[in-house]
Amino acid sequence: DLDAARQELEEFIPHVKNISDSSIKKMAGRDLTRFKEFKKQGIAVKFGRFTQKENKQIQKNVEEFLALTGLDSAEKLLFTSRYPEDKDTIHRLKTEHHFCEKISEGIPRPWRLIYYRARKMFDPNNYKGRYTEEEKEQLKKYQALHGNDWKKISELMSRSNLSVAMKFSEIKSAINYGPWTKEETQKLMNAVKEVMRRKLEAENPGSFSSLEQSNTDLWIEREKLHQQLPWTEIETKVGSRYWRQCKQKWNSILTSKLTKGQQLYKGTSGLQAKINLIKRLYETKAEDASEVNWDELSHAIGDVPRAYVQTKFYRLKVSSVPLWKRKTFSEIMDYLYEKKLPELEEEL
């Protein structure tokens, strides 16, 4: 019963009303029993970025499934269409050995998200380094021929779907890499306001008139300012910058406006802010940065956006932790707490 399945899933997935009927059927079969088991263990269903611990579990699940079936590569398992001669055998092995259940074992997330994450982790086309000038020209040619059929283009170029889509976003027009002009900044702010107004109107039809009456730049509550935005759409509206530049500039604008020019990282207040940040991060006992609630931590160093706090933490670890790239998040935090914190407290 589709309605009953949707109602049961709603307990675990708040946005279930926006999910298609076909996806609900798949989730009822692949996820509902798993979700109920996790609930018994007191574990909530998760969304958002995967943690290092979850990535390791996915790797373990894939390796165990390969050992169980005798398949010789994760690429064959997760990108079966690339091996048409083995396709039937692989599908039979997946069915016989319950691929869906095995790949998602121990991870409290919808199966589909786990599968997509595994594909991203094990796709050899994701790790091919910088694009050559020849590849960039090929990408332009293929996009002219096939439009935004990134699956087709990725096959032609032996790069992942995401990689070719993002690279084309960067090279499709004359991108400006210099300082932002006033005109570009205004275009960006207008674009962000437009998509956020549209989003807010969809969520709450009565709110649009109140937005129109507002004469302030910060015409919406803080929480809304930090949500995910359709950056490729905003990129198109700005015209002269690609999406990642637009996102970084918007975070910079937010920081400037919401901190009202406070010099939080100057003098003794800067030292105290770093001390507070290290202590609060250490107290979370997070194993991975994606497990940290950055919004709550924003209060540790002042009334600032989460992007501001994340930037400050990045600068702190880069400047203070030797060989930080080789360390896990928890190892970085141990070093900051045990080595850097006493230095900062003494300096303060």
Automatic annotation (TrEMBL):
It comes from the Eukaryota. GO terms for molecular function: chromatin binding. Pfam families: Myb_DNA-bind_6 (PF13921). Gene3D superfamilies: Homeodomain-like. One of its GO terms (biological process) is termination of RNA polymerase I transcription. Residues 123-171, 172-254 form the Myb-like domain. One of its GO terms (cellular component) is nucleolus. PROSITE patterns: HTH_MYB (PS51294), MYB_LIKE (PS50090). Residues 123-160 form the HTH myb-type domain. PANTHER family: TRANSCRIPTION TERMINATION FACTOR 1. This is TTF1 factor. It comes from Myiagra hebetior. The gene is Ttf1.
